[in-house]
Amino acid sequence: MKFLLGLAAIAAASTAHGAQAATIIQTDSEQGALAGFKGFDTRLGMLDSVMLSVSLAKTRGWRVSAPVGAATTADLSWTIDGQWQLRSNNAALPEPFVALTGSGSSSVPLSRRSGQSNFGFFEVVATGSANFTFDPAPFLNRGVTFNGYDYGQTVGSGDTMFSGVPVGGSVAQLQGGCVVVNGNPIAPGEDFCGSANYKLTYNYTPAVPEPATWALMIAGFATTGAALRRRRRTIATA
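RE: above sequence
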């Protein structure tokens, strides 16, 4: 009997105070196949908040040239002031922007020739990060895939400034090109131009059994206990 009273007390306390908060964390990236995020299973409880952390390091490919017979190396300095936009396959979610910034220098050998110019290729890198809090409703029992876009990949965006361009020379962004391997540019596509990493966090309150469920459980324990007592009496009498 004391055992059953103890269960009843635990049930009452659990119902009164609710369950402790719990967390589910998922990660994804744009490098390779986007796996996406699983939606929140409402059978687990009540989803209280949804947070997304984004970490970015985006590359862009450029070409620098100088007149033949002039500089054989271009020592460039560059600064970036750009934007990356969060996108998803769920129209109910906002599409905010993240600032992409960067600065650095590149020493580029001008070892190729085209007409009256020597030229070479190089990369610039912009980084950024942000945290977003979303309305939980669009995530209930529905998965989502994030896939943002670096506006600096668009030729003519004007978000990158240079100094040290050789006299009579120029710099030009590569259309769709963002990676330079052994001095040669390749164009794998925006998703592979650097990295975009995501961390999605669900904060939720786990479901608590209803009072009726507790009552059924306690009744079941009581029935089992009574059956065991009757069995002991039967054995003792025999």
